[in-house]
Amino acid sequence: MKQSKLELLVGAFVVLGLAAVLYLTIKLGAGSMLGGDTYTIEARFTNAGGLNSGSSVVVAGVSVGRVEGIRVDPKDFSAIASLRVMSGLKLPADTMASIKTTGLIGDKYVLLAPGADETSLQPGGIITMTESSVDLESLIGKMAFGSVEEAKSEKAPPP
Question: What total of structural domains would you count in the chain?
Answer without folding.
Answer: 2
